Amino acid sequence: MGPCQKSFLLRGLILLLGIHLCGAHLRANPSINFDGRASEILGKDNVVSVENNPEIQSQCDGFQGDSIWALVDHQSHLISRDTQVADFNRDGIGSHPLAQVRTKSSRKKDKEDDDDSGTGKETKTQTGGSTSDSEPEGADSIEKQDLGPQVVWTVKVDPAPPGVFAAAGAKLGVKMPSLGAIGPDFVESTRMRVLFPATPSRFVALGLNDDKKQYRDIWNLVDKKKLGQVRNIELGSSKIQALSPDGSYLAGKPQWDNVISIYGVTQNRPLSPIRLSGTASKLVAFAGKSRLILEDSKELHVYSVPDFKPKTVIELGGWKADDGWAVSAGGKYFVAVTRAGAAAGLKIFDLDAGAIAGGISLKGEPECLGAAFSSDGQQLAVLLGGESPELRVWQVKTGEVAGQFDLTKFASQIKPRENYQGGRLEWFPDQRHLLIGGKGVYDSRDGKLLSELKSPPIYPVRVISPDQLAVVAKDQLITHDLSSVLKAKTAVSTELTKTEEKPVAAPTKPVDRSEAAQLTLEDVEWTVKLGKPPVPIQAVGRGVEIPAGALFMGCLSQSQHGIGFVMYTSEALTADENGLPIVEPGTRFWLERLDLKTGSKQKSVPLPSGSILMSVSPDGTLVCTHNADGLDRLDVLAVRDGSSKGSLEPYHDAPPGPEQQVHYAEFLDSLLLLTAATGRMTLWDIGTNKARYEIEIGDMRPEFSPARDHVAVTDAAHRLIYLLDAKTGKTTGTVTPSDVSGDRVTACSFHPESRLFATLTERTGGGELRVIDLDNGQVKKQISLPVSGSVMQWVGLDYVLIDGEKLVCISRECVVWNYSLPDGMHLRDSPDQRHWYIAADTARSNVYTVRGVDMPDEGVVQRIGAANPRGKLLLRPGQAIALDIQVDNPDGMDDFAEQVKNVLTDRYLSSKIKVVSGVPVTLKVRDNDSGWNLSLLHDGKPIWSHDIDGEAGPSALLEFEPPKHAFPAGAEKGAGQSALGIRGTK
Question: Which H or E run contains 186?
Answer without folding.
Answer: helix 185-188
